[in-house]
Amino acid sequence: MMPEPYEAQVLRTPFHSRTAALCRANDWSSWAGYTTVNVFTNVEQEYFAIRNSAAVFDLSPMVKYAITGADAPGFLNRLLTRDIDKLRPGRVGYAIWCNDDGKVIDDGTLFRMSDNEFRLYSQERHLPWLLDTAIGYRVSITDISETVAGLALQGPTSCAVLKALGLDGVENLEPYAMTGFDLDGHALSVSRTGFTGDLGYELWIDPSAAEQLWDRLMEAGRLHGIRPMGSAALDMARIEAGFIVANVEFFAGNMATRPDRLRSPFEIGLGWLVDFDKGHFIGRRALLREREAGSRYALVGLDIDGNKPATNAFIYRGKGTQVGVVTSAMWSPSAKRNIALASLRTPYDQPGHALWADVHVQRELKWERIAAPCRVTDKRFFNPPRRWATPAADR
Amino acid sequence: MTGSYDVVIVGGGHNGLVCAAYLGRAGRRVLVVEAAPGFGGCAVSAEFAPGFTVSAGAHILHMLHPKVIRDLDLAGHGLRYANTEMATVALDPGGQHLVFRGALMADDSLGAHSASDADSLAALRRRLMRFAGFVREFQATVPPRLVSAGWSNRLRLAKLGWRLRRLGRDDMREFLRVALINIADVLDDELESDLLKGAVGLDAVLGTGLGPRSPNSVFSLLYRLAGQVNGTPGALALPEGGMGAVTGAMAAAARAAGAELRADAAVRRILVENDRAAGVELESGEIIRAAAVVSNADPKTTFLTLLGAEHLDTGFVRRIANIRARGTVAKLHLALDGRPDFTGLDAAHLGGRLLIAPSLDYLERAFNPCKYGEVSPAPAIEITIPSITDRTLAPEGKHVLSAVVQYAPYELKGGWDAARDDFADKIVETIAGYAPGLARLIVARELLTPVDIERRFGVSGGHWHHCELAPDQLFMMRPVPGAGQYDTPLPGLYLCGAGTHPGGGVMGAAGMNAAGRLIECENKR
Fold first, then answer.
1. What pLDDT is attached to residue A4?
2. What is the value of ipTM here, to two decimals?
3. Across the interface, do A135 and B321 touch by the CB < 8 Å criterion?
4. Which of the four CATH numbers 2.120.10.30, 3.40.50.720, 1.10.287.110, 2.40.30.110 does domain A296-377 have?
């Protein structure tokens, strides 16, 4: 029996009836107040679906804001570090926003529906910050999180699945573009975006049509190796792609009580998202000062010797000066390398330092330390051409 | 486009004028632009009825900083006093009025109310005056930053700690105990006369959004006691010709220092170029360029109206928007056909400051409705009849009465337009309770509500002090962290008004400190 809403400790997404039926591992966790699947059957199985066929992920708990009004572009240029004027209608952009001190509050995805209509999707809730940033702007900001259900469909056969679903012409959708379709009388919004670093799409629909979309998608993908994936497999894919996560690679700036724990865009490898030429934006003056004085940290990819994941490892140089820490680590099945994302103190991200990871491994209750030499490398460990090709492979 | 200046100052209130004078003396090319037809801001004399002139805003001079008087030679520029030893009278409904010769210095009249209060008051006075001296020491300095690597800043922080420690162990402990608590508790602990406590309580809450039982009301009394006249702490004075004479002398000092002053020149916005304040645009559309801009306007007006949030970061805007600045004070001006007569009051005391706050309960009851957007049915009042000692203000044989009235909330339920006349009647009725023939003498009257004060003087919220005087909005946190040292997040933009340290009251220290800080910052460029 369904508990009364006030009795439930967690909310259920619009796809819950379908995901619950398929979650044989019964492995769940809480995300933004919703109960979501970690693992449906087996994490490797789901991971390989992302890389070799198609995997479906329920991302309905994403926090979603509709931002509209005459000053919406001006407001977003004030909020975000990147230049919104360069984002055309029908396009999607990755974006970050900072506090007064130029430290990152969160990252998110910005959808430009038209000149003055935007959607901003993020992991954390930010309405008070958005509203206070809008003081003096003619803009309306509405939390529409519960009015949009979302699925990510990721993997090399994802385009073929969508074509089988009847989305004609979807193969011509460019990376970071979006378009709309009709699905049995429901407006289905499709963007070529994702968090796996692979060919993939994100689908957005009214919650009342969510189960229908799930069923139709699974049916359409039956011959294309479709399967549901949980957040554990997604996390593997995103590390291989070099994508960062709030409260893992950086701490959300609105939640911190210790100001020195925060990171600027430059310190998490997102300096390319900072546009100093577009006029004032939140944190600009602080970031200009940082550009002049130099950053304290750098986020890098590491290639680590051996095959033991360097989870939570300290990074040392030379005889033992600690210079950083691993934020995410795994053995990459696709890159066939022992990889990690790490936050290093500058200048140890630069070439010429003999770095090693202090990896702790337990073998049948016996802990062993491995001083594994490692090298700073491009953090896009897996970046296949199919991710960028248009038209997308549809067979 | 007019010629270019080193500094343009937005607003010719007393702090703007003082700032202009100091900058002019330092060799800067300064222009002051003022929206009103004359200079002085809330410190002006105005003829409110033919032949009757009154200090339209502040009406008693007691905080003007001695360094400002000296440095700018205000006496040489025409500042004269009509009265420098103004007594205070706590009006008693029974006619047993209580007279103070100076701050917290009651004369023998106290004996009629309490046998022991004379000694208790003297002890309380000694202690509070020491604390007020501590507060006074920091008025003429730029507050230190709490987080900063600079050595000079650390030195200033250390000095703060040292000065506090220098009070001595017992005094330091007592200061830290009372600084943030409420005045009613302190007075109830020390004194027994209701009339005495009511009078001291009124001084503690004058011009604030506090009642005598609100926290921080001891601090606001210390702030008041930190003022001085001719070196006498807590003394009160009336400038000859009203408050406009003070700002008139300041304007003359500014002109003598080479500053240009332009009235009827309202600023529409502060210009920003390459992320730096570059001048101002007037309502007329005229552009005035300057290397730096100083704003005498209140912080909300400066940042949210004249500059615009788009040039500022969200956290800062949030702090500015959250500044507490809701006026609670109305100002009543009466033109009188003759000298009013207060029952039982010696005519010699009519030139003093007359207080209507017969007890702490009276004061707190006056405050209660204010919390709910209503006016006090029995308001607390500070009355002056400046024409008693200054014959320039009214025709021969006639008088002006100026009263500060609490509480009159800025956000009045139903709005002020419908309530203005009723409230004025109520105030007159309250005063007439002590001066029965008053109503018959009135030939003209003017009531300035906080909304009128906002409109007339351009002060958002109609608050005397621009921002409420409370410890969270004082010193390095005045008006907000990030603008507590007169410079602001926008390079080239400075503040100099009552919304900065050390705050409101006709003091001039903010204008003086801001000028010093501007020179320090601009020299580093």
1. 75
2. 0.92
3. yes
4. 2.40.30.110
